[in-house]
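Bench log, entry 3. Co-assembly request; chain sequences pasted below exactly as received.
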Amino acid sequence: MILRTSLVAAVALMTAGSFAGSASSEEHVVKMMNANGKGKFMLFEPEVVHAKVGDTVKFVPTNKGHNAEMIPDLWPEGAAEFKGDLNQEAVLTIDKPGIYGIKCLPHYPMGMIGAVVAGDQTNKAQLESYKPAGSATKRFEELKAKIAQ
Ligand SMILES: [Cu+2]
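Structure output for the full assembly:
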């Protein structure tokens, strides 16, 4: 009798997660998703992150086909530019107070936008002047309500 034993090799990927930073700075995580199970498709979850200067926001490709990059018309003056690659994690460092508009390039016309708000909303006027594309308009109205909270 031959006993067949299938060995499953479990490979644990250990990530060295010790980011150098002050003890008070936080890392926020935003998922890039195809659906949230509540009738919303192509989204950042959460859509709005309330952070503080010095924090980081990590955008994680929970589903494929997404990226995270800056909305140039909704970006704090002097803040570093930000553009994540498709299907890749991208980490935004909050170096200035203000409102950071984020979009997924492929799904921007479907309304895949988000925002990070940190400290004083120095560029609040951009919330009024920014004109999103296509059906991003509806999402942007929701976004504004969440930014105001
Ligand atoms: Cu997307």
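Helices lie at 125-129, 136-148. The pocket of copper (II) ion is lined by residues 32, 42, 65-66, 104, 106-107, 112 (CB under 6 Å).
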